[in-house]
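User: I'm putting together a small comparison set for a docking exercise, and I want a reference complex before I start. The sequence is below, and the ligand is flavin-adenine dinucleotide. Could you produce the 3D structure with the ligand included, as structure tokens?
Assistant: Of course. I'll restate your input first, then give the structure tokens for the complex.
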Amino acid sequence: MADVFVLVDHANGVVRKTTAELLTLAARVGNPVAIFVGPGVEKAQPVLARFGATRVFAMDNADVTGYLVAPQAELLAGLVKKFRPAAVLIPANPAGKEIAARLAIKTDSGLITDAVDVVAGDGGVETTQSVFAGSYTVTARVTKGTPIIAVKPNSAAPVESAAAAQVVPVNLTITEGGKGAKITESSPRVASGRPELNEAAIIVSGGRGTAGDFGAVEAFADSLSAAVGASRAAVDAGWYPHTAQIGQTGKQVSPQLYVAAGISGAIQHRAGMQTSKTIVAVNKDPEAPIFELVDFGVVGDLFSVLPQATAQVEAS
Ligand code: FAD
């Protein structure tokens, strides 16, 4: 079976859930091989082994780790040219999408972004892809070079499948560092205790309907161990940080469950959440456009509905 590369998303060896999802997708179409950049491979190795990585190509070298995306694309391009994998899967976060684009150019390959599924097709690796800000879902296949596929978080449920995850140190000469942006300082995000939006299985979002009081939204989110999102109206009003904005000019998410409370469902908001697996809306206006795309809708005041829902979840 041909190798399928997965670029590991991690923080100092703490592997993010997206990586387990990508390894699971890789196993469907070939032999998962993890590419690990930076310090902490010893910490990551058991997790990569648990989710089926047969080998781990690891590079912890200041030429790669001290910079943003360009050296990682160069490293991947070197490995692609040497090992000719059947595909490369990269997390579709902002850095990952840029790495994927640079890698596609460097290897003269086709690129698919925002894939939400990866399967083995008759003509090679096939993807289901969310396009035009989530307005359409298409089946796509790369027809040139090595398929470079940026996969949206939460696209697959991680499946454990024990493998050796043998660590193979990589010694490639990286020349692009000086041409890219150098990391001069990094400061950790203030932890909210809630999951990150891009990784969360459940998101509860609030909009202008909260009138600036996110208490009911946060309480319901916490009862479900969910992340909290916001519409741009709520962010522009200064009620919630921009990092929580969902939509065309915010984050694009695909959780298992998305709850929109006091959000009308403008096209720009939909662009960030309409690929969610199950969508629930709470809105006091039965004509609100959000009800066109929901799986379950509650017509009512969020300040009455959400506390009842929270109490039900906490009692169960
Ligand atoms: P509104 O549209 O005002 O809707 C509020 C809803 O709350 C209404 O449906 C109302 O019935 C309901 N409501 C009120 N009170 C209650 C209550 N007590 N209980 C229950 N329901 C209640 N928007 C985004 O969200 N993300 C983006 O990334 C984004 N990018 C944009 C980019 C561009 C270029 C532009 C032009 C716009 C963008 N927008 C974006 C803005 C978007 O067009 C909408 O203005 C915005 O999404 C509206 O937010 P909202 O649904 O919270 O507010």
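The two ends are 46 Å apart (CA to CA). The CA atoms of residues 6 and 22 lie 6 Å apart.
User: Thanks, that's exactly what I needed.
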